[in-house]
Amino acid sequence: MISNREPQSLNDILTALRKAAEGDHVSVRDILAQIGSHSFAPLLLVPALILISPISGIPGTPTIGSIIILLIAGQAVLGRDQLWLPGFIMRRKISAARFCKALDFMQRPVDFVDRHSHKRLAVLTYRPLSFIAMGICVSIAAIMPFLELLPMVTSLGATAIALFAVGLMVSDGLFVVTGYAVLGGAALLLTHLISLA
Length: 197
Prior knowledge:
Blueprint: H1 10-20, E1 25-27, H2 28-35, H3 40-52, H4 61-77, H5 87-90, E2 93-95, H6 96-116, H7 129-143, H8 151-170, H9 173-196
Antiparallel strand pairs: 1-2
Helix pairs in contact: 1-2, 1-6, 3-4, 3-8, 4-7, 7-8, 8-9
């Protein structure tokens, strides 16, 4: 069943994801059907959260997740009204049991964010500044496949994307600012690791 209601909070997203995982496996198509193909910020948040969760330890997951993020953020920047994903992405699936464990892992931080998010510094979440945040998400996603062997760096990148997505979804510019700060931390960590190589 396709959802017509755009998620208004992170808990709305978790509820939708649990509905998508009612079978033995959950596919990207199942998730898209529950979140809706017009909700770019919530859709961007889903792969970012997955890349922060233990699921990111599955080989290849950071690469697939970054491709999905790249497609979502890229189409948002281009001003598309509805998300399109290629068939090979839509058919990607994971065990529903493993997926639900990741959702359980995210429940407490999601509750925390929902309690502390509200409309503030909203100018950062509206056009044209929202396009800057989406453009940065495109840039992060473009380099993440090359950093898959550095899980801490990719997790920080995914955290920054998640913060941007939350900020844009609930018009909370403080989360956008925090996303920029986390991104700066990830850049410093990557620079340090490169200097040690």
